[in-house]
Amino acid sequence: MTSIGANCKNFSEIKILCSFDLDFADAIVTNAPNLKFLSLRCTVACKEALLYALKSLEHLEVLNLTHLRVADKAGHERHPAGGLLFREVDNELIENASRLKKFITCTDRSCPKCNGGTIADEEFMRGNQFDEEQ
After folding, report:
1. Would you say the pTM of this structure is higher than 0.85?
2. Which of the two residues, 89 and 124, has the higher pLDDT score?
3. Given CA atoms 100, 112, 92, 75 in this order, what sign does their dihedral have?
4. Comparing C-alpha atoms, which of 106, 109, 114, 115 is closest to residue 133?
């Protein structure tokens, strides 16, 4: 992100294909403050990082959180059956995204990528491949 910030002054769109934590959010805010489009489709993100990005990226217009899994602050909370515990995109995130021109989330309550409390990282990250119907 430092190289992008130094060499790409018109950088305005990014799709993240890895976990989105507070350090990553800070790198984007610092090095791409004029970002207009952010896609975190099929990724795992820390809620704190999402809120920080939403509040700090003043020019953000589009946020894609389709099939996003929101982890607890540290990303280490465990489900009793094993695996990381995830939460849905909640009202606080939706409220902070309300200023955006476009806020994209999965609305299918039976979506296999969004359902369930735990999921193996490698299984979920395969979802980064674009679905033809999407």
Report:
1. no
2. 89
3. negative
4. 106
Give the mean pLDDT of the chain.
79
| Residue pLDDT, tens place only, 105-120 | 887 767 777 665 444 4
Indicate if the pLDDT at residue 27 is higher than 50.
yes
Where exactly are the structural domains of the chain? 22-128
Closest CA to 72 of 60, 90, 97, 57: 90
Q: Calculate ∠ Cα 79-38-14, nearest 5°.
A: 110
Catalogue the E-assigned strands of 3-89. Answer: 13-15, 37-39, 44-46, 62-64, 69-71, 86-87
CB 70 within 8 A of CB 90: yes
Instruction: State the CB neighbour count (10 A cutoff) for residue 48.
Output: 17
